[in-house]
Structure formats: structure tokens, C-alpha cells
Amino acid sequence: MGIRAGFHIEYECENETPMLLVLKVHPSRQSDLRTEQTLTFNRAIPVRDYVDVYGNTCTRILAPPGTTTISTEFELCDSGLPDLVPEQAAQLTIQDLPDDVLVFLLGSRYCETDRLADFAWMRFCQTPLGWPRVKAIIDFVHTHIAFDYSRADPCRTACGSFIDRAGVCRDFAHLAITLCRCMNIPARYCSGYLGDIGVAKDRYPMDFGAWFEVYLGGRWYAVDARYNIPGIGRILIARGRDATDVALSTAFGPAILTHFEVIAQEIV
Amino acid sequence: MGIRAGFHIEYECENETPMLLVLKVHPSRQSDLRTEQTLTFNRAIPVRDYVDVYGNTCTRILAPPGTTTISTEFELCDSGLPDLVPEQAAQLTIQDLPDDVLVFLLGSRYCETDRLADFAWMRFCQTPLGWPRVKAIIDFVHTHIAFDYSRADPCRTACGSFIDRAGVCRDFAHLAITLCRCMNIPARYCSGYLGDIGVAKDRYPMDFGAWFEVYLGGRWYAVDARYNIPGIGRILIARGRDATDVALSTAFGPAILTHFEVIAQEIV
Amino acid sequence: MGIRAGFHIEYECENETPMLLVLKVHPSRQSDLRTEQTLTFNRAIPVRDYVDVYGNTCTRILAPPGTTTISTEFELCDSGLPDLVPEQAAQLTIQDLPDDVLVFLLGSRYCETDRLADFAWMRFCQTPLGWPRVKAIIDFVHTHIAFDYSRADPCRTACGSFIDRAGVCRDFAHLAITLCRCMNIPARYCSGYLGDIGVAKDRYPMDFGAWFEVYLGGRWYAVDARYNIPGIGRILIARGRDATDVALSTAFGPAILTHFEVIAQEIV
Amino acid sequence: MGIRAGFHIEYECENETPMLLVLKVHPSRQSDLRTEQTLTFNRAIPVRDYVDVYGNTCTRILAPPGTTTISTEFELCDSGLPDLVPEQAAQLTIQDLPDDVLVFLLGSRYCETDRLADFAWMRFCQTPLGWPRVKAIIDFVHTHIAFDYSRADPCRTACGSFIDRAGVCRDFAHLAITLCRCMNIPARYCSGYLGDIGVAKDRYPMDFGAWFEVYLGGRWYAVDARYNIPGIGRILIARGRDATDVALSTAFGPAILTHFEVIAQEIV
């Protein structure tokens, strides 16, 4: 299956503003790219890429005063298969987890494991270890939170979603990640394109999406607490401890997002 | 100057409990060690070290049911000089910061930069860039928070300290780190021995301490918002985004700390 | 396209022998796995995975005296498309290369850039920058070395292949990598399954293969100097500076490989 | 003890030449710096620092046509104590080595472990494990190689020194590292200032020096096969697998070193 994806974003800055962008397809999908994937700007500005500790490609720019547009469009091939459901994958004991996975058991900005541990153990300790426990968590989160774009709040944490019972895809992810970590199941946050393929077909307007991954049976599996069914055609951009690490843009100064358009369509 | 340091810690677990310890002197101080530094346990248990993404030595153990004691004692040489005060060090622009430093501008579990940014800019935007701004922040934090062991709270964040106006050394560090990051000054959390040397001479009982580092003029400098004077004889154990990353112990199951004793004394 | 792949390997050790294995599919292909991928041993032995600085999954084992067998078999989905040929991709100037890419310009155990630089510049300086230069290098290597299994030599370096004019796939890769690096084109070594798909259809018996990647136009592209045509169905295991970093097994003591069998077949 | 150190280096380039410099004091000594440590150039050129996978501070510059000078001078405090001799430190089994240490058992550009393994085992297998074995290796290397500045050869490997029996400090280090690795003792290459302090008092003219570190009893210890006595006042610049990783400068194009001056003196 071929996917054509990209975006067009505009920022308005009063002053010269350094920005950190996490907008390139993740290196692990690089070999699936069938065209170049270049960030294009509306004027010549300083741009530099680097790879962060989580393996994401980050881009540093210095946005001049006025309007800065950032665009890309590329083609990528994809299996077209839905996310694998690890029904048989065992939950590893803490002792058997690789060292680099342990950090995804700890708390982070939007995932207050220390605050939700008691609830998590009370609610999920009876569920069987492994996938059934993860499934119980995403079922809970999927039902507990009502999706509502109008109630998006960039400061809302997992505790916030737990109390507010409303949010957007990042809130579903943060709460589910937190509960998994509380139950000693490593979980990490993912951002990327979801587009109009598979589960997200009805979504309008198109947008970047957030989901997460759990570590079971010796590898990471993509899971989605918002849609709660296996997705098709995800294009990973970045992974991290939570949304802090993979913010599409972090502006070090005032920058107003004035236009935002994402595409991710099957090539037919 | 020679320092003799170490600790004796006891945990009580009902079940076999995996634990993650961050208790060894940081690799950057390894060449100052004049004796071996080994963690000793009261019984033979599985132990393994690894280095995390921040460069800290972490130790994984599997504590058996019952009492587990962990001890170490070692000698180390130290300059005996107080923390350098970077009065002339320039505050680098965001563009000039090295890539690996950027993560220390982002929010983290106990440092809600998104929530405190408005206050920080309002309060500190008039201060001169660089060290004077850092000094204004630590002066503020030093005065704003009242040190009170009895009000220690492991879940308290920077916002919590800001509101509660009480806390222990980690709270001073978290609030100061958050305010520095809000002002685009990279800041990272440090834990280690402070002992009875220099600023901490009056402290009783001895304990591990928390301080932080700011990035100015191309390097990191140790700063201490609790004591607010240059310290002598710090022995770094670990650095991270905040206390989450350098918790002395993270138990993956119930574990009660039943004894805790730290020494760090000048050898005379 | 589905691929079923795996291997069966046997080692004979007289004494207990620690071994380092690099035999698991690379994390970047993990999301394409449709079944679990577990290393199976003929007896219970200590096994532990970790991720090295290049992002490869490494496995540490302690092989007991006698025969140790290691097997795996798994299914994976693949685009079925040939390696992308980056005909239009620009060769970045050194200044524009990301920091993490620079190490792949330096010499390494089997890639003596210092010894081959003069030849490389003499021979390839007239070729156009970018892909045409890479193509000239792989054309040269493909013709210069005669493939000959009987002349495999695990100590042979790029200079060795250059002089001997004979070797196996790793020698093609090492010489081409070295020449690319001499010409300031970052190049890294790859190992993995090639199987009976695409270019390697005629190969007998099946084996793991070596190829390499070059950094052009902002990303890495797979290239193969042995076959010199775009491959289909490569399954990456590991990347590194050269074969040292991705040896399928490194035994710290005498260990004799007594059986070796690899499969990688299209599922029809 | 205070040390004043620095250098003055001049390069002559015909064309604009990108260079990679590893010339700043290692981050692990940063807290000992009592003054700023800035690289100064004779004209305004693009400069950028980053940290490599070994934890070294690297500097990227674009040297313009003509003469480029690079200078620094700084003060640092030091214990004044000689290198610790780990007489009692145990040699860990391979199984007990931390994951991040394993790479320092593998071969590298100038350390052909595969070629020298047989000699190493024949020669050193009777020596007691741990420090006595390391000492036997450095005694051997110290005697086997004759120090001779006039026979410096930047392409010489450990095998080359073994055969030539002549070389400079880097050759002593490479041969000793290789033999240690062959005997399953992790060893890594170090570069830095040695100055006129301690062992190097008689050296003329002053220069940067190379030594190495071995991993025994759970930590790294500095060792010097050239002088074969514990050194005083080493100032570490960088560590790596061998000289490739820590070259003071790597020029990507012709660059002639026209002046070179290093100081490292005790402040009295």
C-alpha cells in the first residue's frame, strides 16, 4: 500500500524565534520512503537536524519575524496491515526487561505514575498479566474519557484526564501510558500521521495523531486507547516519555500557529 | 582534601521486589576515588549495573522477602574549593546551545514549565541575562520556600512548592530548575552527598542532598537554591531532568525504608 | 509481501563461554514482525538483551560446555519493492551533515580510510558529487573484487580486498564503505537476511548477507556492491562502523561453529 | 594543586575546509575548571560543539582559506595525587561486565585484536588475572617499543608497533589496549594534557599525550604504558576505542599543521 502524506503549517512570530521541530518521519520508517522528505520553508532560514536520545529526528530553526511556513509532502509504502495484537505475548518480569526499557516505567511530565498507582492496582490487579491487562486498561481509558476537540488543553496531565473525563488523543494516550506503567508494563508515547486510513477514516479535519506502545514479550507494540481497534497506516514521527518529548514544535518565544493542514492518504 | 563517604540503608519487603538503585558515585568523579566503591548487601542477591541515558550508573537488584541492607563506604579526593560562581559567564542564545542540552529546557514530571512560564517572565524578565538572572531566581526560591523536613512530599512538583511555600532540598531544586528553564536557561537536577562540609555543616542528621546545574557560557555550573551559597565537597551521584530520573531507589512493589544513614566527612 | 525467515546455528564449546550475539531483527523492522521473534536454545542458559550505541539489539549468553544451538523463525511483512536508488539525492557538504552521522566518515577496524584516501581521490574526484560518485565506487568495487567463498578471511580489511581482489560480501561492503568515506560520503555497514528473494535468488546455500548504507540528501540509502543491483526483501539485523560492530557472534573463548543454516523465503 | 593549561595551534588551508576538533577538556573534568575554557580563533568562523557517543565534547568548524589559529588557556584544580594503582581490583568475568563496557573488548582501527589474540594468550595466560595481568602487559609494551618521535606514523596500528618496535605514546597505548582486549580486559584510549608534571617532567617540547584506561573491579583506571609509572596531573580531553575517535583534529580536505604549542604547568 502506498501513502502520500505531508503537512502545511504556518507560524506568526513578532520577533526572531528559535524553534525545535519534531516533524520528520522517524528513522525507523526511512527505508519505506519512496520520495525525498524535505522540510520546505517560505524563506531561507537556518535549519539543522539532530537525533535525540529517543532516536527521533529533531529540527532546529530560527524563525524570523513575520510568517514562517513549513511544508513537506512525500510518499511511503506500508504493509497495509492493521496493528498486530499481541494476544499471546507474555508480560516480562521487571528483572527480564532490558535496561533501556526501564525509563518507560517511570513518571514523566504528563504521566504521574506516583499519583495514579493506587487506583491502577485496585482496578487492574485482578486482570491476567500481559495483553489482557493492557486491553483492560485501554478499554477503561476508552470509556472513561469522552473525545472532545473543544476541550483540548496542552497542560492536561493523566490525572487531569482522569478527573476531567474529556480530552483529545494525547489525553487518551497519557492516561493509558500512566496506568500501564503503574502496572509495571513499559509504555511510551508516539506521535505521527494517522490520516484517513483504517480507524481514522471518519476523522475530519485530518490531523497528526498520538498513540502509544507497550513492551510485551520482548518487543514494542502499537496500541491506541482513543480508537481502541488496531490501526492501519500509522506513520511514526517520534517516540518519547510523553508529549513533552515529541511536541511537533517547541517555540522559545511567542509564536502563533496560524494555519495547520495535514494529509495522509492512500495512493490508489 | 579527602572525604570519607558512604551509607547504610535497609529495606523491608514482603515479597521478592525488583529495585532500581542510583547510589554509586557518578562516573565523572570515578577518577577521584581512592578506594573501591562497592555496594554490599546482607545476602547474596542478583545485582547488575548499567549506565542510563544521562550517564548515571544505575544498579538493578532483586530484593528477596525480608530485610535487605545496602551499604558502601569509600574515600575520595576533592579540591576543597567552593562551587565556582559564573559571574561573567554569558547566557547562550537558544541557537548556540548544543543539541544535547536542549532537553534540559523542556518540562518534566516535577518541573511544569508550561504552568510557570507566565510567572517566570513577569518576575524575571527585567533581570540581566546570564548569572544575574540565575541568581535572581535562586534568591527568589531561597526566600519563597521555607525548609521543613516535616513537610516533605514525594509527589510535590514545582507548582506545588510554589503554592505550598514549604519543602525540602528537592523542592528548592525543582522550583529553581523550572524557573530557569522558563527563562531559556538549561537546568538539570543533581543528587549526591553533601555531608558536613562547607554549607551543610549544621545539617543534622546527614542525608543525601539535591542541587542543580545551569548551563551558562558553554558549560554546566552547580547551584544550590536551598543554601544559596557556594557549596564545598559535593559528591555527585546522578543527574537528570528531575528527581524521577535519579531516585535513590525505585521499588517495583512494596518496599519499606526501615533504616537510612549517610556519612560524608572530611578526612583529617 | 510476507517473508518467513530464521536460522539454526550450533556452537561447540569445551568450557563455559560468554558470547555476544547480534541475531535479532533490528528494532526499526520490529513493527513489521507478524509473529514473535524469540531466540530458542537447546537448554536453559542465562540470556539478556541490550541495545548498543548503534541501536542494535544485542544478546549476551553464557554457553555451557558442549553443544549450544540457537534458533529462531518468524514472519515479517515487506514492501516487496527494490532498494530505492537515490539518483537525485544531493551529497551534503560536511557542514550540513548531522552530528551523529560524522562517525561514519572516520576509519574503523576493517576500513582504513587513511590508507586508501589517495587512491580514492585520484580515482573518483572527477565523478559528479552524490549518487553518481557512489555508483562509480560500487561499480569499481563490484568489478575489482571477485566473489569467492573459498577465500573468505575474517581478518581481511578494505586494503586487503583491494590487494587480494577476492572476497565475500563483507569484503565488497568494507571496500566500498572505505572509498565512500574517503570521498566524504558517510557510509555504514549492515548485516541481515537477504534470502532467496530478488537479487540473491541464485545464492546457495542461503546465508546472512552484508551490505551498506550511504547518507545522501538527508537520509540513509541501502546499497549493495556485491550484487550491484537494487535488492528486494532485505531484513536488517544490525548496523555499525564495520563488521566488528555487528558480528553475528563474538565468543570470549574458543567456540566452534558446527552447524549453520539460514532461511528467508517469500510466503506464497 | 592548580594547573594552567592550554594550546596554540595553526593550520594552513588552501580551500575552505570543514574540521572536527576534539580539543576541549572532557565534561568529567568540567567541575574542576576554575576559569572559562573557550576556543579562540584568529577570525570569525562558524563553530559548533556537540557531544559524541563516548561523551567527548567535539567542535565543528569551517576553516576559511589561509591561516586559522586555535587557542585556549584555562586553570583547573587537580588532586595532585598519582594515578591509583588498582592492585586489589578483581578482573570481572565477561558476564559481570556492564553492557556499555563490552564495546571496549572489540577490535578497532588501530587495535587488531583478531591478529594479536594468539600472541596475547600465549604470552600472558600464565599471569594472574586482574592488575598483575595488566601490569605484565604494560611492562611488555614498555620494553618492546622504543620511544622515538622521529618514527611517528599516523597510520601505524598495534600490529605495526609490535613489528616495528618503535613509536610514540599513541603506539604504546594502542598495543597495550589491544593486548588487554585480547585477554578480555576492557581497555579504552585516552588523550589529554600531561604537561610538565610528574612523570612527564623531562619531556620536551610539551605535547598532548595519549594513555589508556582499563576496566577492573567495576571502574576504569588510567594506565600509561609509555612511562609505566603512575602519572600526576593528567587532564583528560577525550576517550574512545582508539586514536581515530579522539583525533585532535580531523580535516575533511587538505590542512597543514604549521604551528603547535601546548602548555600544562603547575600553578605555584
From TrEMBL, chains A, B, C, D:
<dbReference type="InterPro" id="IPR002931">
    <property type="entry name" value="Transglutaminase-like"/>
</dbReference>
<dbReference type="InterPro" id="IPR038765">
    <property type="entry name" value="Papain-like_cys_pep_sf"/>
</dbReference>
<feature type="domain" description="Transglutaminase-like">
    <location>
        <begin position="161"/>
        <end position="227"/>
    </location>
</feature>
<protein>
    <submittedName>
        <fullName>Transglutaminase family protein</fullName>
    </submittedName>
</protein>
<dbReference type="Pfam" id="PF01841">
    <property type="entry name" value="Transglut_core"/>
</dbReference>
